Here is the input.
Amino acid sequence: MTLPLLVIGNKAYSSWSLRPWLLLTHVGVAFEERRLALDSDEFRRAIPDLSPTGKVPVLHHAGRVVWDSLAICEYANETWLDGRGWPRDPDARALARCAAAEMHSGFAALRAQLPMNTRRLPDAYRWDADAERDLRRVEALWRELRVKHGRGGEFLCGEFGIVDAMFAPVAVRVLGYGATLDDIGTRYVSALRALPAMQAWYAGAEAERERLAKYESLA
Here is the structure.
């Protein structure tokens, strides 16, 4: 049987790629990975035949092409996870879906001013009030999920799921930029970073040789 193919960008930089990769890896779905270095000639040559949007990530499976990180997670949930990607409890599931959708479509200032870079260490760089408001909103979402539905595990609804995969790049940003969070948020970031799948992603990023100025040189 042919394995599903997940096409991703740089592990150091591609926050959208991290989400489905982390979910599939954590739950043990076997897949073939193809990494295309962002802003490279290889990417520009290959991506038109792989993704209808010209972007990563994109999943190929059983003759289907599934693009967009949340759509891939939903597809994985239906195909391999028997629905386990979302909480069984309907209240928890509704809140988790709302939080994941908000992450998917919002937080523009956070994305723009704190681009994901797994190799980054905190320094004197600071962001503006819009990005800080985004961080505080993330903090509030995490607190609400953990307090209401986090019993039974270290993640937002106890066990790791799609909502955690969607917020994983924010954890990378918190660590890389030294953003301050409350105790709940700090513990949650530590739990995400300790995941074996997340450790594997960081190791893959460390092995990459590409360095893109828009991620590495922030004024």
